């Protein structure tokens, strides 16, 4: 699988897998956007796009 560099677009929130795990059970949805290389990290990091659950405030 090829690694891509991801940059958040205006209004978009990208989160690491640890954030997704910490938010389990909350009113958030996460869409897997793959792994990317981040400066300061030796290994690729899995990124998720944060989305609001329907009907949340």
SSE layout and pairing:
Elements (H helix, E strand, L loop, with lengths): L12 E4 H6 L5 E9 L8 E8 L5
Antiparallel strand pairs: 1-3, 2-3
Gist?
The protein has 57 residues and is mainly beta. The chain has one helix at 17-22, and strands at 13-16, 28-36, 45-52. It has one domain (13-52).
Instruction: State the domain count.
Output: 1
Instruction: Report the helical percentage.
Output: 10-25%
What's the helix count? 1
Low-confidence stretches: none
Distance between the termini: 37 Å
SSE order in H/E notation? Answer: EHEE
Radius of gyration from CA coordinates: 12 Å
Q: Work out the strand percent.
A: 35-45%
How would you describe this structure to a colleague?
This protein has 57 residues and is mainly β. The protein has one domain (13-52). The chain is 11% helix and 37% strand.
Search tags:
mainly beta; 57 residues; globular
